[in-house]
Amino acid sequence: MSNNNNYLTTASGTPVGDNQNSITAGHRGPTLIQDVNLLEKLAHFNRERIPERVVHAKGAGAHGHFEVTNDLSKYTKAAFLSEVGKSTPMFIRMSTVAGELGSADTVRDPRGFAVKFYTEEGNYDLVGNNTPVFFIRDAIKFPDFIHTQKRHPQTHRKDVNAVWDFWSLSPESLHQITILHSDRGIPATLRHMHGYGSHTYKWTNAQGESVFVKYHFRTEQGVKNLDVDLAAKLAGENTDYHLEDLFNAIEDGNFPAWTLKVQIMPEEDVNTYRFDTFDVTKVWSQKDYPLIEVGRMVLDRNPENYFAEVEQAAFTPGNFVPGIEASPDKMLQGRLFAYADAHRYRVGTNHQELPINRSKAEVHNYQRDGQMRFDGNGGKSVNYEPNSFDGPRETPENKMNPFEVKGFADSVAYDSEDHFTQPGDLFRLMDEGERARLIQNFADHMRDVERDEIKLRQIALFYKVDPELGSGVAANLGLAVPESAK
């Protein structure tokens, strides 16, 4: 064998003598099945791709760190937030939502904003978007909503009829689609957009006192967006424009950063606030609950291997640490199951053992076996609990902080049906040019909807948001605002 230690082997470690020519029966004979190197290479190649994510399929990732700049330990006992100056390694994945792996970066679409903090108490995942709200507020509608964003079952093309049919029948989407069709709908780069936890979460301190919070990552690069025509041009010329920009910025030492701030709501305000605290289609006014600085996130290292670190990265809002808990937000409650379940299907039941997903804290549990179990699988240790063999035990001090639940088990909607005030306030905050572009973007997106009844139903909703918005979209489409909306 060569003295060179960098010799080629099969997956089992056997040296490969010829990697240029397959074994054949004679000089021109057929290939032999005994060429196990050939068979291994072809079989592995056929399996090199895992199923792409149903949503957020295409994304960019980067490593970095999060440093605490403000002591908020009176609100949460989370160890990684416990003292000013404390630094925690993290990984982020930012993505488009509706497109497939090969789709263009510069399309009008929300951007996923998923952060994994590798804390000493286990991984904490904050899985949000670049918008503070979402299209729907109950997870039972999520599969239907995403179907409208994907491809038609017959034509296999994007279906504008499905998109606007669903939105016009789901007025809770108005706030999000107003943001999406505004100038903010196409970020200039991933570095020039804010990120949000979107949902309401609960923080609990060491004394067992709780508050509710919303997360805001404010870009330090400034918010910049793309003109519609330039975005379309870039989509045709460089489908990976955002991936390229983020990678090159970090590679050049131009490390992007975000300041993390939170809004904090006392528990006693939950039942009296003018909007439902847990409705993810609504925001809390910053006049009511001002932003409080928490820390600073800096991205300073690119992945060495995209597949290992970005494609196999698995985030779930169910990855909590002591001091941070879920709220009764119905959309969040569904995501607690759906995200981890998607990873078990897509990557495997032991996806959390992969280096990019593995906790920096030691893991002690009784979960064993499953495909691709590549650690010691617990060795000879006991695999059940309770036991008499000094196995891992629960720590009562880390139990969820209780909250009151009352009422009848039933399928019920949120109390508030006011889907118009907040998007209306947002519309009226825009200057004249922003409002005109929003109206144009809505009209351009709706223009190819085949049925006027869908257009008119949506126009009626826009009119309730603000008469200028409804009338402007209607005029642009050559339609009249329905009398029933006035």
TrEMBL record:
The keyword Thylakoid does not apply. It comes from Salipaludibacillus neizhouensis. Its cofactor is heme. One of its GO terms (cellular component) is cytoplasm. Pfam families: Catalase (PF00199), Catalase-rel (PF06628). Keywords: Heme, Hydrogen peroxide, Iron, Metal-binding, Oxidoreductase, Peroxidase. It catalyses: 2 H2O2 = O2 + 2 H2O. The keyword Heme applies. GO terms for molecular function: catalase activity; heme binding; metal ion binding. This is Catalase. SMART domains: Catalase. Belongs to the catalase family. CDD domains: catalase_clade_3. Heme binds at residue 339. Residues 9-393 form the Catalase core domain. One of its GO terms (biological process) is hydrogen peroxide catabolic process.
